[in-house]
Amino acid sequence: MHNNLTVLIADDEAPMRKNLREVLSEEGYAVIEAQDGEEALRMAIERKPDLMLLDIRMPKLDGMQVLNNVKKKLPHLPVIIFTAFGTSERPIEAMKTGAYDYVEKPFDLEELLLVIRRAIEYAGMQTELKELRSEISNSERLSENLVGTSGKMQSIFKMVGKVANSDATVLIQGESGSGKEVIADAIQRYSNRKDKPFIKVNCGALPESLLESELFGHEAGAFTGALKQRKGRFELANEGTFFLDEIDNMPHSLQVKLLRILQNKTFERVGGEQTIKVNTRIISATNKNLEDEVKAGRFREDLYYRLNIIFIKVPPLREHPQDIPALVEHFLKKYGGDTVPVVSDRVMDILMKQTWPGNIRELENVIQRAIVLSHGDVITREHLPPQFRSHSVPDEEPIPALGKTSLKNMIAKYEEKLVLKALMETDWNQTKAAELLQVNRRQLFTKMKQYKLKK
Hints:
By secondary structure, this protein is an alpha/beta fold. It has four domains: 6-125, Rossmann fold (3-Layer(aba) Sandwich), CATH 3.40.50; 166-313, Rossmann fold, CATH 3.40.50.300; 318-390, Orthogonal Bundle (Helicase, Ruva Protein, domain 3); 407-451, Arc Repressor Mutant, subunit A, CATH 1.10.10. The protein has 19 helices and 16 strands. The protein has helices spanning 14-26, 37-47, 63-73, 89-97, 109-125, 151-163, 180-189, 208-216, 233-236, 252-264, 290-295, 301-307, 324-335, 345-352, 359-374, 386-390, 407-425, 430-437, 441-451; strands at residues 6-10, 30-34, 51-55, 79-83, 101-104, 170-173, 198-202, 217-218, 230-231, 241-245, 266-268, 275-277, 281-286, 310-313, 342-343, 378-379. A five-stranded parallel beta sheet has the order 2-1-3-4-5, sandwiched between helices. Strands 7-10-13-6-14 form a five-stranded parallel beta sheet. α2 packs parallel to α3 and α4 (89-97) runs parallel beside α6. The model is unreliable at 127-144 and 391-396 (pLDDT under 50).
């Protein structure tokens, strides 16, 4: 029980406040309420609650305005944002401004209570921790390349918001085509260095001799063909951000020089003696497990730990297929021109059931190709690559022969599939799954228990 803890609920919807008040009161929290942004801000300052539940869309002051003011006056107050209007920019804006977490309506009450408990514990342990704050102007918006409403992608967007203003090195791991560079772009765009140089180098695209000169520059006469002094990419990225893609391909000799930059911020050009000092934030990416590379002796252990201050793992597309419709819509708008084509239900069904070994990049290529072939009208199965058309998506399991099983067993089997499909499409959010199935949460919970369905 939490008899000494007060929660402020700020929401313009009275039924929502009532439901939350009942649940929190049962847990032992003292509850105070606000029905608009101005009242929420005033009550937060006057009553100083232990936690604030804050809706984004409210009259008088919206949630982001309230959050901004609350974090200035009460920087240690944990705030959980919730809204029915989820976009990829919302988690990043909220987390950068100092929110503890971000929850979309409709939310699972058990999960919300867990987040509340963690937030209060976090605030108690971290009272001296500086809150992350946003300096993004109201006109700025998240790059439209960040697309995804699944739990996994939302977690990554939140992490981007948390680490953007830090100077800590970031290591991004994910399969080829999963969107690692897009994440790096978002971190730079939302950082304090957003107006400074953003330099990118693919370590796997150049041989060792050229890569060294590309990264660190060279003096005139350093090697054959070096007719004049040339600044390297690290020097050009001074005060800005450096993105090293395919970092696992960096030769050992250059790993030593990179380690020195991370430790001392200094290096020398190829063939030079002058020590150059730089202030550059480093983001690196790899499609391999660098721990395995370290064990195999192909990557320096000390460099790995220097690069891996903040770790972001980007999931392959097959692990968040619920984002495919949003990604398809994004690519249709990106390549469709003035007349955005539509995708037939059959095509979307095929796309949803692919394994996508090339991940988001492969999906983008498929959609771009289909737009060209469809002449901007309706994308059908014929506009997909041949391998998609030759391997048709299997239909639902055929009806068994009568007499082999009872009607009750057939209905139960089909019901189990529907319940599982709803849970998977909502990332196992029971409230959302119940809405898809048009049942209440208690009925859904009973069916999950009956069919032993667990995440």
